[in-house]
Amino acid sequence: MPLLFYISSLIAILATIMVITRYSPVHALLYLVVSFLAIAVIFLSLGAPFAAALQVIIYAGAIMVLFLFVTMMINLGKQTALQEKEWLQLKVWIGPSLLTLLLLGEMIILLLQPQSASLSSAVVTPRQVSMSLYGEYVIAVELVGFLMMTGIVGAAHIGKHKKKNLHRFLQS
Known about the structure:
Elements: H1 2-21, H2 25-45, H3 49-74, H4 78-87, H5 90-112, H6 126-134, H7 138-159
Helix pairs in contact: 1-2, 1-5, 2-3, 2-5
């Protein structure tokens, strides 16, 4: 399966270059998701299905949700709505769609093969990952959680509108 590995790697590199060179944040996000999916297929071709699933769930899924959250929080008005209509044109979706279909074909090939054809490696179960994270690194994991929560609260505070709401007793 080295051929599928190299094809996925090439797709990941091309998609990442497209992320860097795109002017529009929506175009860059589409290619970023394709890059994350290509990395998941790389993990799958190396015999790490758990890492591939985590890559899709955490990175591709969470980045999309975060982007939608920020877009909804900013809400820039009618000009942004017109710009979003431009982003929904077919030409925007052709590149990421073709790369994703190629990755889908690779994933189907990998999943339909017998297990002996993949590279030999040790299987890491979710239990081993959780014991590793929450065993000796439990404080680091908790600190990262606090840091992420602080970032979310800070982003929500910075993104709030500057309209001052006074209490009804303070208005007069």
